[in-house]
Amino acid sequence: MKSERQEELLVRWMDDELNEAEGRELEELLQEQPELRALRDQHALVRRDLREVYTQGDDIPYGDFFQSRLQRAIAEEENTLETPAPKAATGWKEMFRWWLAPVGVGAMALAFLAGTRVASGPEAEMVAAGGDSPLLYTPEGGITAHYQAVDDAGANVIFIEGLAAFPDSLDLMAGSRTEDESDLHLVRHEQKVF
Amino acid sequence: MARLSPEGDGGGGQSEDEVSDLKLVEKCQAGDYRAFDELVTRHRGKVYAMIQNMVRNDADAWDLSQEVFIKVWKALPRFEARAKFSTWLYRIVHNVVYDWMRKRKLASDGELNDETLRESRIAAGSRTTPGRDARPDEALDNEELRERIESAMDKLSEEHKAVILLREVQGMDYKEIADVLEISMGTVMSRLFYARKKLQTLLSDEI
């Protein structure tokens, strides 16, 4: 018997996958080499230990975060690369439409709030930029902003870091300017309609 | 959400999961991102497990899983239903992990030695499973078993290690292993035979 055939028979025997004819073929081999009989029992123990030690397929840790980060990474990837997007890109963009509105409204509210606090100046200008995904723009140095889609809540959260607290003197409903303009922090949101 | 179940012989008919995978792929290709999201949810556990078993580090496995699905997203328009989606996916997993290992080895410029590897594995040893806390004596036994098995697996060649993990741990059939590793069935059987024999010898030497 060729060695390749022997190897295949022995492997399939260890896996309990031999048919009747192959079983007879194997018996002949085992009569010639009885020491091979131990292979199967030993392998069963090794397999049990391997399955004890190695992971077989539990869910990934932080699965929801995994999905949302993946969406973000793909969106960034598509913006970075100027190569034609995959066919599915249309659907991807479709997915974003639903949250453009609330993010846009939030940005408009912040812009309106800022407009009540300062005269227009170069720092308050909207920066136009290309790209297919929304851009959070913070005009002051030291302030950063990013967003995170929270699928379970059906919402998007904008994180603004480095922003000082609004003063108590600010009347959000009045729409008029107050004395302390230094507390102004403007966050604008730019979006491109897909 | 449906989870991937162990598949059949891989030769003839398609399992329900596979049919469903292909439907999701078709939807992805027609522009439905939700379908992609579902595909990821369905396969992420197994993808992560495969990577974790190869790199033995939770954080790296998590990041590499992201990389895998980004590659899947980019390549999906070119996927043809002649192959099983899961096989195609696992081939990407295999390539991503081997690229990562190669780069890591090059970056280490010879500084990567067995001791470094072992330390990183011990640090990553806080596995996400089992779900219950083991008793102290059980934990010690588990730890000893883990060290014994990992030490033996470390001594296998990458080719032998791959077939052992895919067959014994992931439970793939021979044909699927051949497709994932892009080798012939004969090579799969031969590698499995020698890898098992070597592993048995290594483990019996350690006792």
Would you mind describing this structure in some detail?
The complex is a heterodimer of chains A (194) and B (207). Chain A is rod-shaped and about 95 Å long. Chain A has 194 residues and is mainly alpha-helical. Chain A starts with a helix and ends with a strand. In chain A, a hairpin with a 4-residue loop joins strand 2 and strand 3 (155-161). In chain A, the strands form 2 sheets. Chain A has a two-stranded antiparallel sheet with strand order 1-4. Chain A has a two-stranded antiparallel ribbon with strand order 2-3. Helix content of chain A is 45%, strand content 10%. With 207 residues, chain B is mostly helical. Chain B folds into 2 domains: 1-129, RNA polymerase sigma factor, region 2, helix turn helix motif (Rna Polymerase Sigma Factor, Chain: A, Orthogonal Bundle), CATH 1.10.1740.10; 132-207, Winged helix-like DNA-binding domain superfamily/Winged helix DNA-binding domain (Arc Repressor Mutant, subunit A, Orthogonal Bundle). Chain B contains 9 helices and no strands. Chain B has helices at 16-29, 33-55, 58-75, 85-108, 114-123, 136-154, 158-169, 174-181, 185-206. The longest helix of chain B has 24 residues, at 85-108. The chains are: A mainly alpha (194), B mainly alpha (207).
Structure characteristics:
heterodimer, A: 194 residues, mainly alpha, 2 domains, two-stranded antiparallel sheet, 4 strands, disordered C terminus, B: mainly alpha, Rna Polymerase Sigma Factor, Chain: A, Arc Repressor Mutant, subunit A, globular, disordered N terminus
